[in-house]
Amino acid sequence: MASKRLLIVDDEENIGRSLRMILEREGYAVNVCRSAAEFRRHPDADRADVYLFDIKLPDGNGIELLKAVRQNAAAAPAIFSKNRSAAIASWWPSRTLSNRPACAARTNGSANSSAAAPG
């Protein structure tokens, strides 16, 4: 069975690298873009199984990127972060991506996994 494809858009290099390392160990195929422009040029921008968008990017924002993805008929779940992507990683690898509803994670800086962890 093919790996689930995750596309992370986060301008903080350490966050993208850390999430990639954690998620690849769990068997996911992960691509990281560091800007909105890089995301728009990425060949799989509208073909990921899950998206993780940073809300604030130097050249745009994650909400606008998700709107563009949705215009291309991609219905994959999206997770949003506000410079706290590491909190999402604390619960994500233990969850399966199949049959999960789309969710938007909002973190307040703590690693409280109950804030956005689906079932």
Describe, in plain words, how this protein is organized in 3D.
With 119 residues, the protein is α/β, with parallel strands linked by helices. It has a single domain (5-107), classed as 3-Layer(aba) Sandwich (Rossmann fold). 29% of the residues lie in helices and 19% in strands. The protein is built from 4 helices and 6 strands; from the N terminus they run E-H-E-H-E-E-E-H-E-H. The protein has a 4-stranded parallel sheet with strand order 2-1-3-6, sandwiched between helices. Strands 4-5 form a two-stranded antiparallel ribbon. It is globular, with a radius of gyration of 13 Å. The protein starts with a strand and ends in a 30-residue tail after the last helix. Mean pLDDT is 76; it is low at 89-119.
